[in-house]
Structure formats: C-alpha cells, structure tokens
Amino acid sequence: MAGQLRPRWGQPVTGIVSFVVFFVIAWITWYIFSDPRGPVGSFPYPFVMYLAMMILVGLWQHMFLGDWPFQDMPQPARGIIETIVNLIVVWFVIHVVFYRVLGAGFNFLSQSNLNELAAAGKAILPISAEAIQQAINDSLAAGQAILPEAKSLTLEAMKEKHFAESAVVTYVLIGFFSYPFVTILFGKWPIRPSDLKQPQAGVAEIGYCSMLTLFFYTVLIVPFWGLVFGKLLGSSFGLNFPWWDGISGISHVHWVFGWWEWMIIVLFMTPNVWRMKPWSLIPAPQPWKGLISFIINVILGYILAWLCVKIAPAWMNWEQILHHLPAGDKGDATRFLWYHAAEIAGFTLIPFLIWHHYFDDMAPMSDLDSWGAFWFRTVGVLVFCAINYIFFYVINFGHWGLGNHHMEHGLAERLIHGESLIWNFWWIIPLLWNEWFFHKWPFYVHDHH
Q: What is the pLDDT of residues 315-367, one digit of tens each?
C-alpha cells in the first residue's frame, strides 16, 4: 500500500536537484518556442498567451477537477496524458471559446477576427487615417499614455500589436486570482461541502469562478480596451473608459497589473510557505471567513504594489529611466512603475513554490507551522526574490539567457522593457506540471506499508 510521499534523496538535495531540472527544462523550451534566436521565436506573442492559458487550464484540471478522469493512472503516463489534454484544451479555449464564441460579439477578444478584418482591408470605424492620427496625438498630448509609442492604428497595426491576444492575457491575469481564491480562501464554498462527484463538482466550480472572473474582468480590464478602441479610434459609447485615472494618475491597465499581481502572490503564498497563516486564525465560518480573507488579501496586495511603486526608484538611475521612457509616457514613469511592481511580484513565484513543494517548507525551527518558521520563510522568499531580480536584470539573464533584444542596452532600458513576468510564469510551468500532473515523480517516492 502506497503511503506518504517523501523526497527521494532527502533534503535539501531533492529540492536542489528538482530546482536545477525545472530551470533547465524551462530554459530549453523557452529557447525552442520563444527565444528570438531559436527555431520558433514567438516572443512575446502569441507565446505569452499560450503559456498563460496553459497555467489556467492546468489549474482547472488539478484544483477543480482533481485530475479527473486520470487520477488513478500510474506515473508517468498520467502526467503525460494530462499534459496532452492541457494543450488540446488550451487551443480550444483560445481559438474556439474566445476567438469564435466570445468573438462573435467582441472583436477585442478575437485576434482571428481582427486579422480577418485587416486582410479584407475593412475599416472598423468610418473615420479617416488623419482623424485616427489626430485622436492619437490628442491622447498623447493629454499625457494619457494609452499605448506608449503609439503610431497610426490601422487594422494592420492592430494585427501586429496583437490587441486581442493581449486582451485574452488580461483575462487570464484576472483568472489567476479569481479562479483559485474560491478554493484557497473559501474552502471551495459554496460547491463544498457537498456530495457532488467529479466531474460535476469541478464543472460547477469552473462555471461559478468563470462568472466571478467575468465580473472582475468587466470592472478592471474592459474599460482599458474601451479606451484603446474608443479614444484612439473615435468615440465609444458601448465600452466605458478607465475609471481609475483619478486614483492612479494613469489610464493604463498597468495599474491593475501591479496590484492584482501582488494579490495573486499573497493568495498563493497562503497555502504554500505560509501554510494557511494568517487566515487560519479567523474563527468565522464560511463564507464569512473567505470574505474577510479576500478583503485583507486585496488590501495587502495593493499596499505591497504601492510600496514597490514608491521604493523602486531608490535602486534605479532615475534620470536614465526618465530619459528612456516611451514617448507616450511624456516623461511620467507612473505607468512603468505600476507594471514594474507586478514584475517584482513575479520574482517571488519560483522561491515560494519550490520552497513549499520541493524543499518541504524547510526552516531551522522544529515546528514548521510556528510563527518563527512563517517569518523565516517569508523573509527568505523576499531575499530570493531580490536575488532573482538581480540575476535577470543586473547580470542580464534576460538578454544572454533568453534573447530579449530589449535588454541588450543599459540597465535603465532593461528595466523598462525587460518583460520578466513572461519568463517567471514560463519557469513555474515545469514545477507546476510536475507537482499537479506527475505528483512529484520522479523527485518524490511513496513510502510503502
């Protein structure tokens, strides 16, 4: 009879070996699919869209459906089949659900629709190229920085700028929080407790969380696309414009990226290195416990992003940053700083995930659930986040390791154009796939009784 999983070579050797393996797998596959020097070279789009959707679909498979119907298959067959299924579902969700179903009503969610319109030479709005350019000039003159370095937005330009692919990615960004938070903070309420079996329980949770995702997406993301397609291309009455410019000083969606990404980090730190602290101290039943946790999660995520915005200039050559900002920013670094806050958050992903899953929450304290261990791991994650940041930007792994042509210049230009989030999300996929689909095979083995 199979018992508990244990690290094959003990700790920390098992954690170190798995770390090296995941890094090498991520690096090789990055070279194949994304590195401009590689055979495919699809950086950043559509590569980023597919990798983002892979994680979201993987979450549905493992967290919601409990690996149904492959949960009883032996390894590594189970992991291989779940990976193949993941890729098939990812293609279906993007090219059918988004592009053809939701795209039947919303062109901004269908890159194939925009591409077809561009190929046909049709105009989206009956306005001249001169009017389009004037609208862009007016927007940039107002300092709104809707699209940095914006040029004449013909349909062909929209195709090249991957507008709809970006819109799908923003949906996945929201989904990284709005799908798992029901499991982590609400204990799957209201789907559980119940006697629902799989796949009914998983499908019910996917449906419920999709509703919540669309709610957040409508409030936090759609106004930006209303601005892009409305302000730059005429007047929009069907889609609203961003409501947050009075709060953040910018109309760009990067304000949402900054604090939402930190909300995701706080959410996933909870079941990982925090071992459900501090939410486990809340005595209220569900859904009140989840609601209180959610509100605190939102506040804490925003505070962390705001702190990054305020302290990031301390380690940057600020004059160089201002000099190299895109023209559309008009010398205002606010948009850059909010997006960079999201990038900083991304550097914590590998540290807290691998610390929990492959280093077994190691700490010098005998009680791994103590507050001492909690703070040891929390500070440790931040330290490794800083090391990760330095490795990517200062040592410039983003250029020599990943081939990002934006990073072949000075540090200020690297920081502005680094796009580290794409790499950090790609890097965690081998780790998540091994933990979710392969059940840590071959790094962990079952004790047999």
A: 999 999 999 998 888 899 999 999 999 999 999 999 999 999 999 999 999 99
Range of the structural domain that residue 206 is part of: 2-448
**Alpha carbon distance 14, 299 (integer Å):** 36
Rounded distance between C-alpha atoms, residue 361 and residue 136, angstroms: 51
Nearest to 340 by CA among 380, 371, 373, 306: 306
Measured CA to CA, the distance from residue 184 to residue 165 in angstroms comes to: 29
Question: Tokens standing for 58?
Answer: 């993987």
**pLDDT of 199-245, one tens digit each?**
999 999 999 999 999 999 999 999 998 888 776 655 667 788 899 99
Report helix, strand or coil for 235: coil
Distance (Å, rounded) from C-alpha 166 to C-alpha 370? 42
**Whether 25 contacts 17, CB under 8 Å:** no
Q: Rounded mean pLDDT of 424-436?
A: 97
Asked if residue 174 lies in contact with residue 216, where contact means CB atoms within 8 angstroms, the answer is yes
CA distance 113 to 233: 17
In the three-class reduction of DSSP (H, G, I as helix; E, B as strand; rest coil), residue 396 is classed as coil
Residue 81 has phi, psi (to 5 degrees) of -65, -40
Output the pLDDT for position 161. Answer: 74
In the chain, how many domains are there? 1
Q: Would you say 148 and 139 are in contact if contact means Cβ atoms under 8 Å apart? A: no
Could you give the angle at which helices 420-436 and 77-92 cross, rounded to 10 degrees? 130
AA letter at 376: F
Q: Is 431 exposed, middle or buried (0-12, 13-18, 19+ CB in 10 A)?
A: buried
In the numeric block, which tokens belong to residue 122? 């049709």
Over residues 15-32, the pLDDT tens digits come to: 999 999 999 999 999 999
3-state class of 378 per DSSP? Answer: helix
Residue-wise pLDDT tens digits, 390-403: 999 999 999 999 99
Tell me how crowded residue 448 is: count the other CB atoms within 10 A of its CB. 7
- Token digits of residue 21: 């393996």
The answer, yes or no, to whether residue 272 has pLDDT greater than 60, is: yes
333, 305 in Cβ contact below 8 A?
A: no
- Report the chain's mean pLDDT, rounded to a whole number: 89
